[in-house]
Amino acid sequence: MARLFNAYVIVDWSAATKPGAGSDSVLIGVLKRDVRFRLAFESFVLPTRAEAEKRLILILDDLKKRGERAFLGLDFPLGFPQGLAAALKLEGAPWSAVWDFLDHRVKDKADNTNNRFGVGAEINRRTTGGPFPFWGCPPRDTLTTLQPKRAHEHGPGDLPEFRQADLAVKGPSPWKLYYAGASGPQAILGIPMVRRLKKARGEAMKVWPFETGFAEIKPADLDGVELVAAEVMLGLGPFALAPGETKEHALARGVAERIAKLDETGKLGAAFAPAKDLPEDVRAAALEEGWILNV
């Protein structure tokens, strides 16, 4: 039975504002075959996003040289709730237009200092003229269009509070930019990185479900494709810790091994398709908002 991928790379991104340590670092886990063709896991812990991006490129380039197609799992949202591109009056495919918008505005320096609050404030200004829908920031970063607390509940006519995938996992809203559990910072700082990967690799890289379609992937669909990127959620364990392993390492390894097992048994392709009972409007929204592979 043909596998879709030869290697599985999982990235636990970080939104730290200074070089990180421990859970504030970026973790890259790589599950690939060793000289005996057995799957072996190795991981890299990087203190800054700049160093992590360089390491990730090296990993992916090495897999390419070896002729190994890779799966890239990213533990952060690859999109925002449906309607953001339209509210910003962006042209083109909504997901891609938002990616371009962020890439042109995000400033993420080598020491992890970044302008994510400023980007959130600008999106608020352009969409509502006030401190909504993005919210959450330290008091020193408070602006007219970004406040530490949410301005009001989401109501009729507002952009949705959650993506459909967030509702499915009862996850946080991407509009939340600060405090524990926020996913918005990783999205704002992570999407430009993925866009750079995509820009450098062109059609050899596909982003699910935006470019592949929200549908089953078969081996023939990946002719000429070296890399498929998708959103994953590391918190959907549990995974047992190996000796000397941190929780973050165990989650990255566990997700990689779970995806590899599905691939080995010929079931991974079907995992890229929506559940049969998923409503049509949710399927359509996923093509703008993204979806989480292991949901």
Provide the descriptors you would attach to this structure in a database record.
9 helices, about 300 residues
Quickly describe the structure.
The chain is α/β, with parallel strands linked by helices and 295 residues long. The chain has 9 helices and 6 strands.
Draw up the topology in text.
Layout: E1 7-12, E2 26-33, E3 39-46, H1 49-65, E4 70-74, H2 84-87, H3 94-105, H4 116-127, H5 164-169, H6 184-201, E5 205-207, E6 227-231, H7 247-264, H8 268-271, H9 280-289
Parallel strand pairs: 1-4, 4-6, 5-6
Antiparallel strand pairs: 1-2, 2-3
Helix pairs in contact: 3-6
How would you describe this protein?
By secondary structure, this protein is of the alpha/beta class. The protein has a domain at 7-77 and 186-289. The protein is built from nine helices and six strands, in the order βββαβαααααββααα. Strands 3-2-1-4-6-5 form a six-stranded mixed sheet, sandwiched between helices. Helix 3 packs across helix 6. The radius of gyration is 19 Å and the shape is globular. It starts with 6 loop residues before the first strand and ends in a 6-residue tail after the last helix. The model has no long low-confidence stretch (mean pLDDT 95).
